[in-house]
Design a protein that fits this description.
two-stranded antiparallel sheet, rod-shaped, 7 helices, mainly alpha
């Protein structure tokens, strides 16, 4: 975050924020806390575009604060509004990090991908089902014929049996 944005959030003038940082510069040593924007970088910044004309350009290059720098800034600016604003900024940093790490999923695209995967799976299953070769079809026909023969034989076995032994007919019984 740039110093003039932070100054606006904290409700102070940018020169007081810079003065506080410069008087406590040992707290902000290293690029992982804060660094000063160069003129080349400044020319690419939309909000910091250099204007033509006398007195309309930025005299001092702005500071860019990292998450650690904003946290350290709360120890330099010791007012109630600065502490409250700093809490909000830190929550914003955490939410931004969470959003970057867990990017929102496009549900429509996810559903399209799932439908596409299912379609490919079904095509594979049906192509496997329809790819039965001639040998397999012949084997299935032979199995069906053998089952039909077994069924006929089984039907023959279940018919009524002839009685075994001496059978008297009614002519002989008198």
């Amino acid at each position: 975050m740039l110093d003039f944005d932070l100054a606006e959030m904290y409700g102070i003038e940018n020169k007081y924020l810079k003065r506080s940082v410069r008087s406590n510069i040992e707290r902000f040593e290293g690029d992982d806390f804060m660094f000063e924007i160069t003129k080349d970088e400044l020319s690419r910044c939309k909000k910091c575009t250099l204007n033509s004309g006398r007195g309309s350009n930025i005299k001092y290059m702005p500071f860019a604060f990292t998450e650690l720098g904003v946290a350290m800034l709360s120890s330099v600016l010791n007012s109630v509004s600065a502490i409250d604003t700093n809490r909000k900024i830190m929550r914003l940093f955490v939410a931004t990090r969470h959003l970057v790490l867990n990017a929102p999923v496009d549900e429509v695209q996810e559903l399209k991908n799932e439908v596409k995967e299912l379609k490919n799976y079904l095509e594979d299953v049906f192509s496997d089902y329809n790819d039965i070769n001639e040998d397999t079809r012949t084997q299935i026909e032979l199995i069906n014929e053998a089952l039909a023969k077994l069924e006929v034989k089984h039907a023959h076995v279940n018919r009524p049996r002839r009685r075994i032994g001496f059978i008297q007919s009614e002519e002989y019984i008198e």
